[in-house]
């Protein structure tokens, strides 16, 4: 089967890393199902992607509501489409000290970053395993390897994504289905704005942020190669190696200092 007969489904496809991944799939002649909350942003993105000649289907879903993850799968099945590649890109964070942050927002983020990702993976991986082929790319993060003061819930969700991805990869090793975890560091996307994190030292120097197109290319190449996980960016690789050698308490303090507000004493 050539790529023009294949379908990739990408959540969070209208901005940041998800949008850049969608461009790469479109350029490789995949047909696409792109998913996000905003209808207008979906249509704008689809118009750009259709220039490559493939089919682009838009489906608006709010994956903060995990029921919409189930309905997304059902909608795809009703269309009679087999998904060859699933990209779980949609994710969000919340910034602040855990004692002060909004628990309802944090529970929504757990639903988005974990529950909906697990639901979509469960639904589509069953079909992929039955067909004997398929690829899944889950957006983890270098945050999955680091305690995350100021973003405790976000880092915790990404630790789940990485552990979950590695576990089911082993379960599926003889099935023809591969699972890849993409682990970017701080990237120049709308993530920090949505997380109310613009006053953090982590984004003080935007020149130090990764380019989402570079991150997407790292993830795309790793996915196509069937690699288990990829840390995008040399400095992020170094940070993960160093943190693995240091006591967790020391790493937590370093991340606290890196992510605290600029004006925080």
Automatic annotation (TrEMBL):
Keywords, alphabetical: Oxidoreductase
SUPFAM superfamilies xrefs: NAD(P)-binding Rossmann-fold domains
Superkingdom, natural source: Bacteria
Pfam families (UniProt xref): adh_short
Gene3D superfamilies xref list: NAD(P)-binding Rossmann-like Domain
Coiled coil: none
Family classification: Belongs to the short-chain dehydrogenases/reductases (SDR) family.
Name of the molecule in the record: SDR family oxidoreductase
Species this protein is from: Dyadobacter subterraneus
């Amino acid at each position: 089967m050539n790529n023009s007969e294949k379908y990739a489904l990408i959540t969070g496809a209208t901005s940041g890393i998800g949008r850049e991944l969608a461009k790469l799939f479109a350029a490789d002649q995949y047909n696409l199902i792109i998913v996000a909350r905003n209808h207008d942003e979906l249509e704008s993105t689809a118009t750009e992607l259709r220039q490559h000649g493939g089919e682009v289907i838009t489906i608006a879903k709010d994956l903060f509501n995990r029921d919409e993850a189930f309905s997304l799968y059902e909608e795809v099945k009703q269309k009679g489409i087999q998904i060859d590649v699933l990209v779980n890109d949609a994710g969000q964070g919340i910034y602040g000290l855990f004692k002060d942050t909004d628990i309802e927002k944090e529970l929504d983020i757990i639903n988005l970053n974990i529950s909906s990702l697990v639901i979509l993976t469960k639904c589509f991986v069953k079909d992929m395993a039955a067909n004997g082929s398929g690829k899944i790319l889950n957006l983890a993060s270098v945050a999955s390897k680091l305690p995350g003061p100021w973003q405790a819930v976000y880092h915790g969700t990404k630790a789940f994504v990485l552990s979950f991805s590695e576990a089911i990869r082993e379960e599926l090793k003889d099935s023809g289905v591969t699972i890849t975890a993409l682990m970017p560091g701080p990237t120049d996307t709308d993530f920090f704005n949505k997380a109310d994190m613009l006053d953090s030292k982590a984004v003080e120097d935007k020149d130090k942020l990764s380019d989402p197109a570079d991150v997407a290319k790292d993830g795309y190449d790793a996915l196509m190669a069937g690699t288990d996980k990829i840390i995008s960016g040399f400095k992020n690789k170094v940070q993960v190696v160093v943190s693995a050698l240091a006591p967790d308490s020391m790493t937590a303090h370093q991340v606290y200092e890196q992510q605290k507000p600029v004006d925080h004493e």
